[in-house]
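Researcher: Structure for this, please.
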Amino acid sequence: MQVHETRAQVPNAFALKGPASPDTMLDLRVALVNSDIAGLEKALMDVSTPGNALYGQHLTKEEVESFVAPKQESVDAVMAWLKENDIEATKASPAGDWLSFSIPVSKANSLLDADFSEFTHIDSGTTSIRTLTYSIPADLKGQLDFVHPTTVFAKPFNGPKFVTPPKIKPAVNLTSDAVPASCASTVTPACLQALYGIPTTLATVKSNQLGVSGFIDQFANQADLRTFLGRLRPDLSSTTTFSLVTLDGGQNSQNINDAGIEANLDVQYTVGVASGVPNVFISVGDNNRDGVNGFLDEIQALIAESNPPQVLTTSYGFDEPDLPTSIANSLCNAYMQLGARGTSILFASGDGGVSGSQSQRCTTFIPTFPSGCPFLTSVGATTGITETAASFSSGGFSAIFSQPSYQASAVSTYLTALGNTNSGKFTRTGRAFPDISAQGENVEIVLSNQFGLVAGTSCSSPIFASVIALLNDELAAAGKPPLGFLNPFLYSTGASALNDVTTGSNPGCNTNGFPARAGWDPVTGLGTPNFAKLRTAVGL
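Model: Predicted structure, token format:
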């Protein structure tokens, strides 16, 4: 046996409770080594890079699976090991690169030379069974990627706070070209239309879908959506709604008291900004046993679909140090699979400035995940009519993922200008984020029949996702493929189609964080959308 993964200590947010009961059943998964991840990455870049002969020729489900399916010898070797230990495993992903099985703690300890214990998340009181180290047979190195969940300590998600505004302002004039002054203190769909030039005309292509991720029993309320549209998008039909997909026991209770701030925000700003684009709310329930709050289950469910949404927005995330490199890489590669098939994946960058997903004490900067994954688009936040960086907008440099070539020039320019500021507090060679940004403060939503304001990059991601979904609608109507993985486009021909934000910063860790400046920066990325320029840049 050889030690395969190990953690030096229990993460700060958790406390060791004691040994796990030997009879407790563990749901474990084994990730097998993919046969050709480098080949898939090349294929992704080919179909996503403007000017490449293969641009827009997205892969089929089967083509993607051929890259990620493990070699047969790997399957045989791992299955033989499990069988020797009287373990029956089942295939747990479309390409067969994941296997799953359930065994008691006592058996898991002997199988993996592990010490599975109970750990409590101090703030929430939730417990999980994990081990700080485990081993696998030496002859499975190179065949078995990792066992999960073992050394992952994912904190429970937090949603944004809902603030009742001092008084409700009347809806602004939808036909005004100038940005109404009220948008400085209350952001509405009309503000975004005026600020970014987002059209109000209805999308026409029914196959063009916009997916919204839902977690932690955050339910999107249809009555609240009706109220929201009635006041803030009266030009849309009051019956405009969304469809529902559930997994892991997910649901979407319509009891007005169960309405979720995050779910309502996300759906109101996709339905309410991406006019007429079919919207699907993906509710991931609490029965996830994937160790990452349902992230793995959601992406594998989408990979398994024959027609996944063309855009996916997610307003949740982790601090990168909470996840072992193995599961971070595996999730990132799963996003690459969906991107290669033509889905634009957008994630909120986080709300702790340089201190991570939420504001916290730190000495070195804390990157967030999945924003550090190079195969998706990370969205930061701005504020104000003359846009400036929102101070909470998370950004920085991954300590797991290296810098992709598509952003090398933009990041190098920024780092040269930055000089020695914050030296030693971040990884200069890491994947830099966010990529883009949008309004994220004083955003008006309806919750349990009340109007109020929310803030966070969780506002920004659905707003930018709506812009991409509207562009995809026009592309589909013109017989063209969807935009798919956005970053190679954004950092090349798309960069000049964005509003550059050059002021503000994202403080944290007892520093001023990173300053925004001309060009790309790790607070607002390349900037906010200019719809007319983006239309031209995508060839419409």
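Researcher: Any notable elements?
Model: The chain has two domains: 2-34+69-148, 183-537. The first strand starts at residue 2 and ends at 6.
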